[in-house]
Amino acid sequence: MKPFREVDTPVVHFLTGPECQRLVNACAKDFRNLVRGALVTGCRYGELTRMRSADFNAEAGTITVRLSKAGKSRHVVLTDDGRQLFSDITAGRPPSDLIFRRDNGAQWLPSQQQRPLEAASSHSRIEPAATFHILRHTYASTLAMKGVPMGVIAAQLGHSDTRMTEKHYAHLAPSYVADTIRAALPRLGAAEETNLTPIVSRA
Known about the structure:
globular
C-alpha cells in the first residue's frame, strides 16, 4: 500500500490575540518578559536566553541573534511594541548583561521553560499547552495572515530560504484563490441563521 501524498504536511498550531494576552498575564514576573520576547521576535528559547543588552539597537529598532540554529547571525526587526519591551528591559543595564534573567539574576537554562509555560497555559485555559515553538508559530502565522511576503518572514525566523516558511505558513496568507472563492460562493444553507449573539469569554 502506498501512503497518501502530503500526509506529512505540518499542522501549525498558533495562538490568537486574546490567547496571547491571557498567557502573558498568567506568567510569573520573570518569565513574562521571556514570553513577550518570543511573541514579538519569533525567536527560539535558546536564542532569547543568550541575548545581551548590546544586541538591542534602540535607534534601528532591531535585536541581533548572534547564534541561531543554523549557526548564522541575523537582525530581527521589532515593532513599536517590541522596541518598547526591549527598551524597558535593558534600561540602565550594561551591554554585556543578559536581557532575560530569572528573578535571582541567574540565566535561564535549557529545559527550564516548559514547566512555567505549562502552568501559565493551564491557568489561562489554553489547550494544548503552549510551547516556545508554538509562540514562534504564532509570530510567523500572524505575519503570514497579514500578507507579509514569505521571504520577509523567512528572514525574520532565520530560515536559509523560503521553502520551510512556505511549507508551514503559505496556506495562511491572503491569496487570489481564497478571495475569489469567498466572494463568488453564495450561502448554501450550511450554516443556520440565528439572532443569538455569542458570549465572548473575558478570561
